[in-house]
Amino acid sequence: MGTTQLETAPEPKYWHLKTVLSEALDSEFAVGEILPNERDLAARFGVARATLRQALEQLELEGRLQRRRGVGTTVAPPRMGVAVDPARHTWPGAPGDDWEPVEATEAETVPAAVARLLETVPGEPVHVVRRSRVTHGQPVAAELLYVPASSLRGAPETGKGAEGAEQPADAAARARDVLRRLQGLELEGQDRAVELGSARADDARRLDRLPGAPVLVVTTRYFARGRTAAVAVSTYRADTCRLTFGDSEAMTVLAG
Question: Of 21, 74, 162, 165, which is least packed with CB atoms within 10 Å of its CB?
Fold first, then answer.
């Protein structure tokens, strides 16, 4: 068999630079140390700034570097293990779920990809529950849980105002209420899909990353009554997270 064109293609310059930079990170820089600016690094290694940016982006994707607003590019700390979904066959918000509910809103339009999974009709109200995941004081994931109003059982909880009139609960309480009512259904199964993406402005702010930073997007469908009852879109920091899926409880996210 002859040699293919791909096999004879030279290694991209940024890829070679990434290897050189990785060795420098190991020998010259400490965890948390801020790297010199791009101009100085490009001059040191004799490359164009565009080539340097490609190498830095690859190192960020591999979890060697972190870019933060107002700080710059720093050497990433070692990764630490965080359990993912220890209660594999339960609804979001069930005991053992360590996601923190933030707020719940009601929308008549949801992203087209989510609407297809939910098989909702235009104008059908959908509860959107925002949740966050924090470990060792650091945000590692943000989630949007979409639940059609038709999926929920029971009446929503309300509080009483000074005049005795019903008042909406606070944002976190509304989120917990949606999760509570969702757990009134019998879960028939779930499936997941994982893809690499870029952080939107809202997710980047919640994850303390820059917009466009690499993220892992896990989309989970929950089934009840023979249909999709809810869809969760969970966004993990790809620079510091590694997802391992299986039937055991050894599923982990490694987050720095």
Answer: 162
